[in-house]
Structures are given as C-alpha cells and as structure tokens.
Amino acid sequence: MGGMLGESKYEVLGKVPHEYTPKTILISLPVSVAEVTARIKAAGLSLPLIFKPDIGERGFMVMKVTNESEVKDYLKQVKVRFLVQDLVQLPLEFGVFYMRLPTDNKGKVISLVAKEMLFVTGDGKASLKELIFHSDRAKLQWHKLKNTFHDRLDRIIPLGETIELVSIGNHALGTRFINANHLITGKLSNTFDGISHQICGFYFGRFDLRCSSLENLYEGNVKIMELNGCGADPAHIYDRDFSLWKALGVLIAHWHRIFKIALANKKQGVNFVSHREAFALYRKFKSVVK
Description:
This protein is of the alpha+beta class. Helix content is 33%, strand content 20%.
C-alpha cells in the first residue's frame, strides 16, 4: 500500500471502493488546456475542481482550480502527471488513522484529527486584507491569498460573515488540526475495519475524508479524498495544545507499529523496499518539487 514519497496517489486511491471516493481522473504530461478541459467534460466533471500531483507531500501543488485561466497557470507549474478530483463540499473533514496486523481479522482506529479550514470572520469595519493580516495563521498564506482574493481584498466584510480562505485541509496551508481522539469508538473502528478489508494489502494508514456529520462518519457515509500509508502521521499530534513530549511518545509508538506490520508482512512473503528503490523514489520526488 502506498504512502511514501514518489508513489502514485491515483493508484492508491484506485484500490478504495468507488462508493467512498470522489470522481478522479489522471492526466499525463504534456497536455494542453483544451485537452484538460475536454477530459474534464468527458468525465462528467465541471470546475471548480481539485488539482494535485500524482506524487506529493504536505500539500505540495494541491490547488482548487476554478476556471480555465487557473488551469493554464497550473499547467505552467506542474512537472508530473496529476489528478483532477471532484470538489467534495461536505462540511466536516477528518483524518482517520487505522491499523491492523496482517495476521489479525480486527483492527482499530488509533488517531482521529478534525480539520478546521483557514477562515476569517468579518467585524463590519476591516477589509478582507486587514482581516487576513490580523490572523496569525492567515497572514502566513498571504503570498497565495493575495492572488486568490485579488478582486476582494479591499471589501469590508460584514459583521459575522465568515470567509473560508483555503478549502484544502492541509497543515502547511493554514488548516488547524484538532485532536479528536475522544470521538474514537468501537463503532468507528468497526466501520473502518469494513472499509479496510475491501482494500487489498492495506493494514496501516490515514484516510483523509469529508462527511456531512459525525453520525455519517461512524456509519461510513464518507468521501475519501486520499489514502496515505506509512508515510502519513497520526495528525492529532499537531493540535496546538498537544505537548512536544507527548507527540514524540505517539510517534515512537507509531514507528513501532510500522515495524511490527512490516515484519508480519515479511513473514507472509512481502519483500522490503530496497535501499536502491527507496533512493529512486526520493530522487523522483525531489525532481518535481524543486
């Protein structure tokens, strides 16, 4: 199962039953704006959509694309084949980390993170630009936000009006990660047992998903945008109230689980990735993120 640098997001997501995933197409380079537009139309999709490289890390080059001009801009930047994915607009986003030993029939959810998108709220006095610079998280994204909201920066935002600045749930893009481990239940683990058993070779990783309510999360009525394997973190540790030492303890336990699953897989005939293969994956990744 994928999740390390250089592996295909599209191939990994393709292992997840389609009922759980948004419609996604893969586009290879070189390609023109007209060809991308035609592929989008043929797939029954329409802008806005999410564009993301078929290789990535920490939200690298993941963008919400709203028009053909932005498609053109994206093609100027991207250096590798990329995914075009239906924009999932369900209100709640979570990262659900699941594990199961290959020798076991039952697994469990070991981490649950809720994601609060980057937003500002109007006070009836400040412009959008001023609100962005009043926010410690938002001002760090100014180099992107000034382009996204170039035609609205001077607008006074009415009292109580909320503007979502970034729709992509990534820590590097300003999303706030909230420890939601208190919401982990036996029902949640059973639900993701059911989903995981439908994914060949999957024992360990994080489902990045959206849903309409907590009830739907527990029932498995979700849309999984990405499935990340052993390269993913138990992202609840990025809660701003989570201590460094506690986070280190979680990561040590996390790495130990990876080791146990790798050994169990080895005993069942699954070969380890060689140093040569690992370095090749790393070089491939670095060649497109410069």
